[in-house]
Amino acid sequence: MLQDLEIAQKSEIRHIAEIAENVGIDKQYLEIYGKYKAKVSLEILRKLEMRKNGKYIDVTAITPTPLGEGKTVTTIGLSQAIGKIGKSVFTCIRQPSLGPVFGIKGGAAGGGYSQVIPMEDFNLHLTGDVHAVGLAHNLLAAFIDNSLFKKNPLSIDPFSISWPRVIDVSDRALRNIVIGLGGSENGIPRETGFDITVASEVMAILALAEDLLDMRKRLGKIIVARNKDKKFVTAEDLKASGAMAVLLRDAVKPTLMQTIEHTLVFVHAGPFANIAIGQSSIIADRIGLKMFDYHVTESGFAADIGFEKFWNVKCRISGLKPNVAVITCTTRALKMHGGGPRVAPGLHLPEEYKKEDLLLLEKGLPNLLHHIRTVKMSGIKPVVCINAFYSDTKDEIALIRRYAEKEGARVAFSEHWLKGGDGALELADAVIDACNEHVGFQFLYPIEMPLRQRVEVIAKSVYGADGVLWIPEAEAKAKRIESDPEKKDYYTMMVKTHLSLSHEPDEKGVPKGWVLPVRDILVYTGAKFLCPVAGTISLMPGTSSDPAFRKIDIDVDTRKVKGLF
Asked: What phi and psi values does residue 132 have, to the nearest 5 degrees?
């Protein structure tokens, strides 16, 4: 069987301007990058502003194994299938970080016959947006240290600086470093560190911004430190935000690409899913919804994290109301939640996942049912997509279908990895049927609700916790935030493991009898995020003992990439 990269490289690919013209995107709005990708000017929104929005579809998942359960391939396969039945359709996904691409997870272009092409371009530099984010972030870091060196006119307290540097590779050795060594001409020595670029607040702002002006304003509000009087110091105080916006002036425009079946895709922004919204940009969604009858996007991780943020943060900011959410599941993940053996990247998949085991599968189904209930709380119609594996049996599929339908979800078995759009026609029909029904969309909590109450509601309603345990320092911080009128409309961005409904990654299924511990609250003033932290978090991943970059190379004769997946 061909690998994802081989399938992508053997597929027909069309000039992006030709496909754009076929769907009515005038060339005046395109900025071409080679033959197969283009930036789309935000001026197109002025032309489209009087058009009615299309149907808004979010793809989420059950709690995954560390291997992932195929949200992106489902997103693309669904979009291709909707196109196959003659509907006007568009897809919008995040740009991947090079950390996972060169690590153990690999790329994020989908897979098999449901992927974005050129797959190499998508997974590597694309049009340079991630690098622009990194440059803008690091420019601000350089402004901070230069201000310290130049007699510190803003009276910055060096011990209060909270703005690290970033780089878009996984490099644990950079998590904590000392800079300014080597003598008085090399700056002021201090401790700092590196995060991965997609964890930057700048990336979160790119995903949330309405336009260039909104992005410029948000950049200026970023807090980087306190001064000697304990007052906040911002990027605007350092006079850095204007230059940062200049570096991002092209990154704010979505990048247009194509699937294997030549449906159009926006690739835009790539914020971390555990500390930010983990979704593509609001700008891209707005354009797609105005241009096409069906707009398919995805939210990072499972419904307890990605969908919850899509529901209560992204939709609140954008004002857009979704019609349906697709919950991706696999027999593999459900068997893991039923007590199956450990699943880990780089290790052989245990035999239990390759043969029929209805008892193990049935024990894991409560995890799927929990996520169905989460989606239903929003008023959105859930559609369960059983993302097919070669080892799935008819009885296993029938068991999932019976339980999910009893819980009130539509169910579709889909072979989009193997067959592309043709393999997802049942899924497309189910999604379109759901889109035709009334949606009573509602948020989980009002924005006026105090922070601690919001966290309690999310923990109990979405995660299934019995309550919340606030570490004293975190509770004191929460009280200060709640008393600050400027933060009344900040958005709650929970930080928790994606490998469990609880804060403990090894707790599978639907854990019972537990409380959510909150040990800190991170505050991002440009993005307007309040991030209650449950458990440990690293914003700079490490690299495994057998990372993907060892297999990646280039054929010097054909100049084709090898080993990317």
From this structure: -65, -40
Dihedral sign for Cα atoms in the order 275, 278, 280, 286: negative
Q: Give the integer Cα–Cα distance in Å for 287 and 291.
A: 6
Q: So where are the chain's domains?
A: 4-127+251-435, 129-234, 451-533
Give the ranges where 170-255 is alpha helix by DSSP (H). Answer: 201-208, 212-220, 241-247
Model pTM score? 0.95
Name residues whose C-beta falls within 8 Å of residue 304's C-beta, 6 or more positions apart in sequence.
63, 371, 374, 462, 463, 496, 501
Structure tokens at 104: 């153990």
For the domain covering 129-234, report its CATH number.
Answer: 3.30.1510.10
* pLDDT tens string 129-141: 999 999 999 999 9
pLDDT mean across residues, the chain: 95
Classify domain 4-127+251-435 by CATH architecture.
Answer: 3-Layer(aba) Sandwich (3.40)
SS3 463: helix
Higher pLDDT, 50 or 383: 383
- Write out pLDDT tens, residues 320-374: 999 999 999 999 999 999 999 999 877 789 998 999 999 999 999 999 999 999 9
CA dihedral 282, 301, 84, 378 (to 10 degrees): -70
Query: 544 versus 440: which is more confidently predicted?
Result: 440
Domain 451-533: give its CATH superfamily: Formyltetrahydrofolate synthetase, domain 3 (3.10.410.10)
**Whole-angstrom distance, CA of residue 523 vs CA of residue 177:** 23
Q: How confident is the model at residue 235 (pLDDT cuts 50, 70, 90)?
A: very high
What gap in Å lies between CA 463 and CA 304, rounded to an integer?
A: 6
In angstroms, the CA 96 to CA 270 distance is 6
**DSSP assignments along 359-396, one per residue:** HHHHHHHHHHHHHHHHHHHTTPEEEEEEE--TT--HHH
pLDDT tens digits, 488-510 = 999 999 999 999 999 999 999 99
DSSP 65: P
Q: How far is CA 80 from the centre of its chain?
A: 21
In angstroms, rounded to a whole number, what is the distance separating the alpha carbons of residues 460 and 407? 19
